[in-house]
Write a structure and sequence with these properties.
Length: 190
């Protein structure tokens, strides 16, 4: 249940980030335009909170997945899939777009359909892609010949990408909630 709570809190923090995305970009543009290096304290705190809650969510989700895998083994049911993928599968570049899904499918053990699993996983992969794209928008603000910031309006592209990532986070969390509840409930029945 803790995995549900922390992932829900992470979703709320992401919503807060989306709601403040335009003002964050405007503050950054104003600071860069004036040559200042001031930091928006509220934005920084939101980023730190997002990282901390995101890390906690990952740990608690991986612990839940590990517990289900371990309990299945105690019942004599081989979950299948790569061992301990719920921990390391998230960190293998490019393979991390598939391995956590395979790990979740293995522990769901016919308790959750592939449609629900993909409902969780595809939006989550979209979160990653949109977040990376939003981070890369700053590249377009730089004149590579001079190394100077010449197109601060390029930073505005990060705002709709942040909205997209937030919507995808919400959708992913809704499906993750279904997965955790069904797997946990049906696992207790076994």
């Amino acid at each position: 249940m803790l995995a549900l709570i922390t992932t829900g809190v992470y979703t709320l923090v992401q919503l807060g980030s989306a709601l403040t995305a335009q003002s964050t970009v405007n503050s950054a543009k104003a600071a860069l335009d004036s040559g200042g290096t001031s930091v928006n304290v509220a934005t920084t705190l939101l980023q730190v909170l997002s990282f901390a809650v995101g890390l906690g969510s990952f740990v608690l989700l991986a612990l839940w997945m590990s517990r289900i895998r371990s309990n299945l083994a105690k019942l004599g049911i081989k979950a299948g899939g790569p061992p301990h993928v719920e921990w390391w599968g998230w960190f293998v570049p490019l393979a991390n777009f598939v391995l956590p899904l395979l790990g979740m499918r293995a522990i769901a053990h016919r308790k959750v359909g592939m449609d629900v699993l993909l409902g969780w996983w595809i939006p989550w992969c979209l979160v990653w892609l949109a977040s990376i794209a939003a981070s890369l928008t700053s590249i377009f603000a730089v004149d590579f010949q001079t190394g100077e910031l010449t197109n601060l309006d390029a930073l505005d592209a990060s705002v709709p990408l942040t909205y997209l990532a937030t919507i995808a986070t919400i959708v992913s969390w809704v499906f993750l909630t279904v997965i955790i509840r069904r797997v946990t409930a049906r696992h207790l029945e076994d």
